[in-house]
User: Fold these one by one.
Assistant:
Number 1:
Amino acid sequence: MNKFTPLLAVVFFTSSIIFTGCKPSSSSTKTNPDFNRKVVFEDYGTYGRTVYFEDTDGDTWCYFDLLTIDNPEQLKLTVSAPMEEQCSTDTDLILITYNSLITSEVAGDGITSIQTIAKDFQREAMIYPSNGVAREPAPSLPDDSLLQIMTILNAALFGGNPAMVSLNLRSDNDELYGNIPYILDYLTSDKEFQNEDFMRANSATLFISYYALFSLDDLPDPSVDVPFPMAAQPVRSDIYADHPYQKLSTTETDPYPLNQIRVE
Amino acid sequence: MKTSLLFCGLLTLAASLPTNVLADPIYADDFDAALPPVPDGIDTSLHTGVWLLSFTDVGVYESVDYDGNITRTEISATGRVYSVIAPTSVNDSETDTTTYDHSRPGALALSCLPFSSSDGGSKSLEDWSGSYEQVNYYYNPITDAETETGSLSIEINGAELEGRGVFRQHPAGFGGRFNANNLIAHSIGIRGIKISNNASVLENEDFETTISSSCFGAIQKTTVKEGEREVETVILPSHWQGTNEQIINPPYFDGYDFHAEIFSAQQGTTDSYTLILK
């Protein structure tokens, strides 16, 4: 023991006083409904619907929207490339799937609210063939510049702050209604960057980048007033209330059977 | 009364000791030892500069299986880091120049701390002087709700600072609902001294260093899980020490200086991390 050991002991004691009370308690987290292990939604499977919107030229567009919940831990959001006038499986379609993690489920007023986050956001693209039988991966992933840009932007501006995104499901007369979380919901976790003004100012860039994911030649005219993507839409309930999900019969070879979806 | 007088007297004695008395190399077991006194020539009128911090951060993780069995893991990190308080930068697009306003300091750069990546982002900081509170949060665009998850309070007196933070669960620290570790909460206490008026680590005439990070250092990390206790030394930021890299010379602090060496088995090279205050 050297001559300074007693001094270090005093200093350590001082440190202990300063740091006393550092030990955290987990009790406060138990009241946060955004994190729980309660399993409410158990009607597992893949659901599909069509969603229509009009662009600024008044042209009508449609896309397939699929929701897959196979367990209480994660869900998949899948959308097809938009197509003019009416949804159809007559031509090969690119589908893009985003996986998100479930953090909690809460039941109330006939609505199951599933909280999700997009930590380590995974994306996969595939071609849904017109014959609807043989699924194959897309020959090359579409340009994911938007995802990269948004991820970098989110990390730089918000420290990689993941947004908590609610999927609200309601069963009514054997039909399932749900809102439409979108990739932009997950990636911009700052309220200031989720407001309508921001979306209005940046919608053209976001839209063009987003459509680049689908490698489309013919793009809808960018507009903040259309529900594709939904992030620019301040009120979404009217849109998804008109489009219930149908439960689909999937197989290993055809996990996204678009041809079962009722075309409205 | 006598005890408190003696205690205060010893504290005064500790504070008045010359630098070299406390300059014995400090290795991981003693990372909670007192910081050296503030070096001569430090400007106490501005907060911007490089700070040497001592901290203890204690976090609790939980993992739950499908049967509801909970496994708790407590991680305690005691260490020292170098951190920068940078001035506000102002860009003039017309002249393509950047000026720095040292009267408007930013927050301490603490991104290398053990749990900081699990705390998510913090709200932007207003102009401050003397103290600030930085609040962490997450946002739900569907419900338009912001949920605060904790905060870090920093108070500066001259060239010394103290800080305290308490953080609850945040999506950034979420691993999964079942069979995955989730950071439930952690709490940190910080003390620090300003060691340079220049708000940069690499471009700083006060230092000899090749380090450019604005937050780096080392911790002794104690993990307690199911009665098992494991102690290890970790260099910060943790990505400096990957899975194929190992510490060959344990990190230590010598007064204001820092030394560490990491060997990369994959590349067969040794990286030295050294900062010396001239």
Number 2:
Amino acid sequence: MENVLSILFCLSLFYVAVTSRVKEYVTILRFQGIILTISSIIPIFYHFSFLGLILPTTLLLVKVYLIPRYINKVILDLDIKRYIETTIQQMVFMPIVILSMIIIFLVSSILAHNTELNVIPFASGFSAILVGIYIIMFRKKLIVHVCGFLILENGIFLFGTAVASELPMMIEIGILLDVFVVVFLMGIALNRIRSTFEGFEVSHLGRLKD
Amino acid sequence: MGLEILQGITSIILILGVSPLFAGLVNKQKALLTGRIGAPVLQPYYDLQKLIKKETINSQSSSFISRISPVVNFVSLIITAAILPVGFWKPLISFNGDIILFAYILGLARFFQILAAMDIGSSFEGMGAAREATFALFAEPIFFFTIGSISFISGYTSLFEIYHSIQLDNIYYLVFILICSISMFVLAVTECSRMPIDDPNTHLELTMIHEVMILDNSGVDLFLYQYSSYLKLFIYTILEIAFFYPFSKESYLFGIIIFFVGIIVLSFILGIVETITSRYRMKNIPQYLLFATAIGILNLLIFTFSK
């Protein structure tokens, strides 16, 4: 089951790599949130506890509902254009993602020889981290950077479940809170930037002086 | 032995006979979804009947290539139809490595069509040929990654053997169906020039791919081209249905039921997809195809490293 979810997660990464609309990024974030929620519900079937229910509920609330809704609100409020703007050609992005994914799968299968780890969730989490970094590197819009950061965060979450079957719950909830605060701050920052510059591209920030 | 040959011949006749019906079903579905009554389901048959009665006129500047190309096209598609299993009937042509033959016979058909389009000497058709060649370049890896990974799971290289030998208790096979049907669908849409890639209904030269290549053909030539395009769509449909064949391991009858149910369901899906999507811009199509290739590669990676 975990493998199936990770494969779906990989598919969502591919979709992120080809799409050129800001709205689709938010949809994918929601989709990934659902996948992570399901993957965190699975352990409950083996040994049920009310404490274990807290994490899925928080995930559902934060990753599926609050963050996408907030990003959508920011997009609407600030009237951001629908298309992402890239620093490299959109065509090139996909081959880069495919290549890195192949390397990651190779590396993680080598790692799996010596350590006890689940190859597919590990590799897909790892690839999500890289895809997130690529998005931050190769896209111009700030709101897309936020989405890239969130994809990276989702990757770390999946990565965590692959390495250790259960992280202490307080840590996971702490991470979630962290992410939410970061997104919130980003929204406020975007609002501030708008009052100073026209548009929301990183290239404007390059001209800032002390 | 005799029974097997009979089954092979029956399945070819079935494919040849049903393929225009499938196109008709898709068109009817599209019409109903957009609120029109639409042409009757048997319309493709009427069209073919009309075309075969007409006179064939060839351009003066064309050579023998444009005369043999429709026939080559049609015959190659019949050969590919002979490789495909219908249900669990053994196909007429089946040997180790026939998946490669399958891909390259289709490649031959495409090659002759492109040559014929350039042979006529119209600039529009040259443009269509260039586009067809470009998109075929991106579509080829999809086929090889998808079919390659399934032959990897089963350990066989013949289409019939592959579907005959897959063990269903492998949970990965279900995931495989899920993933591969997406990439196969993209491949079918590309090769048959259906909606997100190319709009079969428009006759605007700037946007056409497949239709523009047969713009100057008429009569029997056009009949052969049209029939081959129906056949091609149907062949890719069967290739997609074939993923579900292993569920019918026990009996021939169940395989045939899966075949027909699959056809109807796929015509519905194709109709819905063609209704809700619009044609992509030309420069975005390679990305769409790369997405399907990436899915194929993911498949291969998963099966290599999850043992």
Number 3:
Amino acid sequence: MFDFLPHSFLQMNAIFISILIEALPFVLLGCLISGLIHSFLTVDVVKKYLPQNKFLSICTGSLIGVLFPSCECGIVPISHQFIRKGIPPHTAFAFMLTAPIINPIVIFSTYIAFSNSWTFPLLRVAGSLLVSIVVGTWMAYFYKDDIIKDLPEEAHAAEHQHTDAKNAAAVLAFAADKAHLEDASKAPVQSAAAISTALPSKTKNFFDSLWESLEHAVEEFFDTGRYLIFGALVASAMQVYLKTSLLLQMGSTKLSSILVLLLLAFILSLCSEADAFIGSSLLGLFGPASITAFLVFGPMVDIKNLLMMSHHFKGKFIVRLIGLIIVTVVAYTIWI
Amino acid sequence: MIRFILLLSYFELMSFLQLSGRADQYINVHYQYLTKLSMALAFLLALVQLVSWTRSGHANEPHHHHGHTHSLGKPWQRMIAYLLLAYPIVAGVAFPTVSLDADIVSAKGFTFPISEESVGDPEMTTQYLKPDTSMYFNKTDYDKRMNHERQDYLDQDKIKITDDNYLTIMELIYNFPKAFSGKTIQYTGFIYQDPVGKETDTFLFRFGIIHCVADSGVFGLLVHLPEQTQVSNNDWVTVTGTIQMEYYPSFKTSIPTLKADKLNPAKVPSNEYVYRDYND
């Protein structure tokens, strides 16, 4: 029926389907987790557990990804949901940048890809932590503009949220007062007790909330899914129609080969669980510095990930974010 | 309702790929739990959508619930979103499945794993192309495993490469080119001709899938064919020949190559890919 399609298009299609097969389960999982966060994580819980100090909060965000076995596709909706739940953007972004790299699955696949050696997994993890701390600090202390897009349709819903936010603010003010009065060392115990008493009053019923989170996951899927598909289409077209082989011949100096591999990481849009294998095959040609750049940058910025980000966050912010990531990665890897 | 159908179709697409065996044209067999995971999750969400659709009294509008907003407000936006989401289902089920071939090699390029041993003349190699290999070749389990496997093949003078051991043997040959020099091997692959100036380098490659087709690459050897052999891109052939070391100017290093004595046309295998095996 579709035999008239050109061969190159069908090859692009094969690459497209394979990216989709690889990314879809993680996007679906990301949507489910986002739904659970939506229904179960309350603003006051966040504020109580997260360190008040901005820098410590960035560090917490950078490390929490160890617990999320996810690649970069599922991470954008989760981070966006975090911000909606009152987690400061600098912490949410620190999480978004490191989670696809520092989780056990990705560390392990990097270890395997580089002939069972710890050098590259360690360089990769250290690089991602450095980037997340630089970006988090920039967002916490220097970037003052809004980062979340306000969509036109959101206006009426924002009213809903407004009252929500007011209530939350009241709860917070109360909590803060309480915290001042109490011994800091007791705080975790106290907050745990506060959560257990706060939860039933806030949520009518556990199963209602669970249902709500599932419905939210469906919404999230239809919201994010189209960006994944569009991104996968662009990435597969690049692989077939753009002569990336020309890139392999560039890179005569250390700096230029780092930049070439940043570009390659962006174009290929590989899953962070698989990119180490490509990285290791390029090692002989480009050397360890540019391979480290490839491994750190790829999971943070690539075509499909960028499209998903552009849906949630403002363009001006994304441009600066990417600029800062590039500068940091280059500054880090040039010493290797 | 459209949403329910779409989610159910995703479940069906994954089941179809799984049951028809077409999944191995897209992803390494070792990762097929991913398709199963998608199947389960898409099915769950389809059920959720069905129930919430029934509950909402069949309203056409996807209903808003408190706190959450989405940008699928305008009908045309919703149309585009649904069309995009429907595309993979059409593409996955109805389009003919093809395998990657020489056209992709010329677009994506190819590289060789360059080992400590094969980095030849230091005069010819820039510092840059000669990374400190001790960094990533630590003398531990990896070496033990590779040495163990190498021993199995070193005892043989003639090595026959099959689908199952393809990637393992290619890795060994590139890692220990000197040990394999002079040995006779036989393998099947497709021809890729790389024009370099006036000359043409001929390679015999297979696409190897590490994780999925998107990250697949070609693995194989530069082949010197017997005089007056005519081949063209994408011809499937079986060659028998001797491994030798040779300086390869494009990468400024020595690589193992194959001097072919015999070349026979081969049938295109039913599965053109070889897979990286994690069990060894």
